[in-house]
């Protein structure tokens, strides 16, 4: 998987989770066929798209795609304006992690997952034994990606990837994945019209990218085909290969919720600082029930995704492996905590700071600009309060004797703006 691109897509996907659930996104059947709409005349973008389809042929052929395969997939394609809109969108508000988890780990999602775990017990046991990835983690990824196969995406994968590839911010990603999708078509003898995907080219029940298919896909049900759209065994086994090759440690958990002491130095909960369990214990970290941390030879990091007023998590290497599947802490937490609950373990106990208002795009940019003016450099002013901005925010907080949790709140933004004004910056 390509972590940076996955991260960028995850950021967009996350901010678009205000979109309706997978089920609602599926096209409705119209009882009356709509009247045919005449095509508008081709504009400059259409001409650019047609030129791309023609030019990319040489690239594909040089990579071993036959002319027949290329034409089968690519002839007659039009760019998708709806994908271009998604590709260019700048979210006004980023959904807070608690709202994201409310829908990603809903009671229905948990009970559906428990039913899948029971229905497919034998198949899942086989996959778990072979690849070492716990069945509840695989079922949880399945639930998070497509609500257990209910929403595989309804774009044509070649149209989606060609639209990303011909122009715009994901052109390089689109070209790599388009080439991989063509290879997949050629290897697997598929019908290109049946190859559906999300707008970003992820396809099948586990929403794999074509490049990941080429690397990790296996025939889970033994019918001689690798069909990640229709065979849940193929999709789940292929995801297990990917998670395993990303470094999942067999027999080990992802981590668990912890309780931090009131005097905790929050800058240590950056998600990057590895310490031994003994060291975290010595700093006063306890299980959520207040007991001593269970002994473990592996080092761990601590996350506080909603700052010091929200839950805290101790995370091992396996949590980082889930981040490789999709590089957003909210996604990895959804996968890991849904898996826990599918397996009958408790969910998150501590309350989220639901009274915190999310910052708008303008407010996020104002926070970044103000940090830079105060001497906290950032690579980009883009309104994305990711790892870099949060690290600078922690330094800002620490220098002013504030709890350095790096969590951007309205209150913090106000304090930063006041300081900028007072200093005449
Ligand atoms: Ca198969």
What is this entry, summarized?
The protein is mainly alpha-helical and 425 residues long. Helices cover 50% and strands 4% of the residues.
Explain what you see.
The structure is a single chain. The chain has 19 helices and 6 strands. It is mostly helical and 425 residues long. Among the domains are: 255-342, no CATH class; 359-422, Orthogonal Bundle (Muramoyl-pentapeptide Carboxypeptidase, domain 1). The strands form 2 sheets. A 4-stranded antiparallel sheet has the order 4-3-6-5. It has a two-stranded antiparallel ribbon with strand order 1-2. Helix 6 runs parallel beside helix 16, helix 7 (107-119) crosses helix 16 and helix 11 crosses helix 12. The longest helix is centred in the N-terminal third of the chain and has 19 residues, at 44-62.
Number of distinct helices? 19
Strand arrangement across the biggest beta sheet = 4-3-6-5
Q: How widely separated are the two ends?
A: 43 Å
Radius of gyration: 23 Å
Name the beta content range.
under 5%
List low-pLDDT spans: 1-34
Shape annotation: globular
How much helix, percentage-wise, in residues?
40-55%
Structural class: mainly alpha
Largest sheet, in brief, is: 4 strands, antiparallel
- Name the average pLDDT: 90
Order of helix and strand elements from N to C terminus: HHHHHHHHHEHHEHHEHEEEHHHHH
